[in-house]
Design brief:
Elements: E1 12-14, E2 17-19, H1 26-33, E3 51-55, E4 58-62, E5 66-74, E6 87-90, E7 96-100, E8 104-109, E9 113-121, E10 124-133, E11 138-142, E12 157-161, E13 167-168
Parallel strand pairs: 4-10
Antiparallel strand pairs: 1-2, 3-5, 5-8, 6-9, 7-8, 9-10, 11-12, 12-13
């Protein structure tokens, strides 16, 4: 309510046009309502991301271990781009427990396997490959015992097992 308006003053309609009584508050009211026709102030335009890099890019962890991935974004001039949230995704959610945050992600090994972690800002992405292994609890060598005569050869077989006694496959043995 305007304290300087005349008592009983109301806008009057004249076809498509309205006449408002004289009121010194009216310009402020119209401006606050956006009736002045000016465009509202716009938010700052975010700097475009040219590259994104995940660290570490590859890693191998054991079941139960935790690692942290960080995403670094750069603009076309090589300047760090901050405060842009990263969109995270995984190729295999069974191998790791995944806890993303805006700029990093925590992974905990759950089951033997490999997962690809993708970090994306806008249309720019990078991928890290994380392998998860079960710890070797025992190394079994066969045959046992082995007897050789000079000049003979024998081939040994190596079996790796985990703590539950399950055979582990695909492991290098030297």
């Amino acid at each position: 309510t305007c304290s300087t308006s005349r008592s009983g003053s109301r806008p009057r309609s004249r076809g498509r046009r309205w006449d408002f009584p004289r009121c010194p508050c009216l310009p402020a009211i119209l401006l606050a309502a956006g009736a002045c026709g000016a465009d509202p102030p716009s938010a700052p335009v975010p700097v475009p991301v040219a590259t994104i890099t995940l660290f570490p890019h590859t890693d191998t962890i054991y079941v139960g271990e935790v690692i942290h991935l960080t995403a670094g974004a750069l603009d076309s001039s090589g300047n760090e781009v901050r405060d842009r949230p990263v969109d995270w995704s995984l190729s295999d959610a069974t191998a790791v427990a995944f806890a993303p945050s805006p700029q990093s992600a925590q992974l905990e090994g759950r089951h033997t396997g490999t997962t690809r972690v993708v970090a994306r800002i806008d249309n720019v992405a990078d991928t890290a490959v994380i392998g998860v292994w079960t710890r070797v609890a025992a190394v079994l060598i066969a045959p046992r015992p082995a007897s050789l005569v000079i000049g003979d050869t024998i081939q040994f077989a190596v079996t790796l097992t985990d703590a539950a006694g399950d055979t582990l496959h695909g492991r290098p043995v030297e």
